[in-house]
C-alpha cells in the first residue's frame, strides 16, 4: 500500500514442520528485532487463498465514506473490538495514514484555455508517479516460455527530487503524446503543490 511495503516469500523444503509454527516464530522475533514495523502473514495454502476471494485476510472489514478522519477513528475502534476475539492475529488497517501527501492545485480555467482538463493532469501525474499498471495494464507474452509479464511505465523516483520537478511534469491531451509545447504550458499553469496531511 506504500513505498515502504515489501513482500517476503518463503519456500519450505520437503518434510518441513507445520507452517503455523514458522509463522508464530517469525511473528515473535520480527516484531522484537524491528520495532515500529508492521508484519502480517497472508494465507499460505491454496484453499485459504481461494476461500478468501483474493482478500489479504480471512476477516476483511471495509469502511467507505466521505469523512476520512471519522472513518479512520471508526476503523481503529473496530480493530480494537475485533482484537478481543480469541484467535485473531495480525490485525491492521491496510491503508497507512502517516505518509506525507501533496496537493496539486490546478487553475481549471487557464488549463481549459490550452486544452487540458483536471482529469488530464490527475491521470498523467498518477501514471507518472505510481506507474501505468493500475491505469492501463499492459502485458508481454514471451513466445519462448509462454509466460505473461506485466509492463509498467513510471518516472524513476530519483528523477523527482523536488517540487520543481513535479511542477514541470509534461501533460498530454486527449491521449496524445506530450510535446515540448505542452510541457512549457503545463509549467505555467500547474500550480505549485502545497503540503497537506
Give structural attributes:
7 helices; Multidrug efflux transporter AcrB TolC docking domain, DN and DC subdomains; 197 residues; disordered C terminus; mainly alpha
Structure report:
This protein has 2 domains: 1-97, no CATH class; 101-196, Multidrug efflux transporter AcrB TolC docking domain, DN and DC subdomains, CATH 3.30.2090.10. The strands form 2 sheets. The protein has a two-stranded antiparallel ribbon with strand order 1-4. A two-stranded antiparallel sheet has the order 2-3. It has helices at 19-33, 46-51, 68-83, 108-113, 118-130, 163-167, 180-189, and strands at 101-103, 138-141, 148-151, 194-196. Residues 175-197 have low confidence and may be disordered. It has 7 helices and 4 strands; from the N terminus they run H-H-H-E-H-H-E-E-H-H-E. It has 197 residues and is mainly α.
In DSSP terms, counting alpha (H) and pi (I) runs of 4 or more, how many helices?
A: 7
SS-based class: mainly alpha
Number of strands: 4
The parts where pLDDT drops under 50 for at least 5 residues are 175-197
Q: How big is the Rg? A: 22 Å
Average pLDDT taken over every residue: 75
Q: Note the main sheet.
A: 2 strands, antiparallel
Range of strand content? 5-15%
Query: How many discrete domains?
Result: 2
Q: Which overall shape is indicated by the principal axes computed on the Cα atoms?
A: extended
- The level of helicity is 25-40%
> What is the string of SSEs from the N terminus onward?
HHHEHHEEHHE
Strand line-up of the largest beta sheet = 1-4
Cα(first) to Cα(last) distance is 17 Å
Amino acid at each position: 500500500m506504500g513505498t515502504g511495503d515489501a513482500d517476503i516469500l518463503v519456500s519450505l523444503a520437503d518434510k518441513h514442520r507445520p507452517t503455523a509454527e514458522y509463522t508464530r516464530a517469525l511473528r515473535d522475533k520480527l516484531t522484537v528485532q524491528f520495532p515500529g514495523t508492521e508484519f502480517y502473514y497472508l494465507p499460505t495454502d491454496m484453499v485459504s487463498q481461494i476461500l478468501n476471494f483474493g482478500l489479504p485476510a480471512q476477516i476483511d472489514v471495509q469502511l467507505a465514506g466521505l469523512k476520512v478522519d471519522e472513518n479512520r477513528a471508526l476503523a481503529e475502534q473496530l480493530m480494537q473490538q475485533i482484537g478481543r476475539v480469541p484467535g485473531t492475529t495480525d490485525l491492521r488497517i491496510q491503508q497507512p495514514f502517516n505518509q506525507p501527501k501533496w496537493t496539486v492545485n490546478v487553475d481549471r480555467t487557464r488549463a481549459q484555455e490550452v486544452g487540458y482538463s483536471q482529469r488530464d493532469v490527475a491521470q498523467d501525474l498518477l501514471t507518472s508517479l505510481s506507474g501505468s499498471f493500475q491505469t492501463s495494464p499492459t502485458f508481454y507474452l514471451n513466445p519462448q516460455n509462454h509466460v505473461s509479464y506485466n509492463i509498467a511505465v513510471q518516472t524513476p523516483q530519483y528523477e523527482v527530487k523536488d517540487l520543481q520537478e513535479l511542477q514541470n511534469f509534461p501533460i498530454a491531451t486527449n491521449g496524445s503524446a506530450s510535446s515540448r509545447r505542452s510541457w512549457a504550458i503545463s509549467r505555467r499553469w500547474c500550480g505549485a503543490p502545497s503540503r497537506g496531511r
